[in-house]
Amino acid sequence: MIEFFFDCSSPWTYLAFTNIQPLAKELGAEIAWRPILVGGIFNTVNKTMYETRANPVPAKQAYTAKDMADWARLANIKIKMPPTVFPVNAVKSMRGCIWADTHGKLLPFATAVFEAYWGDDQDVFKDEVLTKICERVGLNPAKFFAGIAEQSVKDQLKANTDEAIARGAFGSPTIYLDKTDMYFGNDRLPLIRAALMRKKTAA
User: Rounded distance, CA 122 to CA 12, Å?
Assistant: First the structure.
């Protein structure tokens, strides 16, 4: 079992979200998608992220842009960095992932949010953008907005975020194998592949 704690507001998460799916399918591993609010993690255990954003190292910033473009090309996805609204308020989208999961639509909904924000440069905090995403993936917009306002949905998103922090997460994506074997980021997927292969061989 792969647990994938994620927030759609991260471009590296979009890459990992895209790349881990064929990997898991190839190796016969199930993925448990765990929506979180990465801002809650930053505020609690990784406040240096805000300092880094406010005072970037120019050379590192330039390389990061190239690195991300290279990864996006390899994954065959489109990432505009930075988007017009950055960072985006992803709370509605991530509550939407929780609600969509109860209707068997988490994967298409999250995919559409990633594509809208990173690929099409749309502000996924806006209701009109979320309405179009719902229509695209076959969710009723009125029920969606009512659903993400439910306390149980808000509580589940907070519980996921708190759980990730308690288990050592400091950002998104945070990925676990067998509950305790933690990996962070898109570039750790080769390590995840190797770990899954070891388990497969041992089995």
Answer: 18
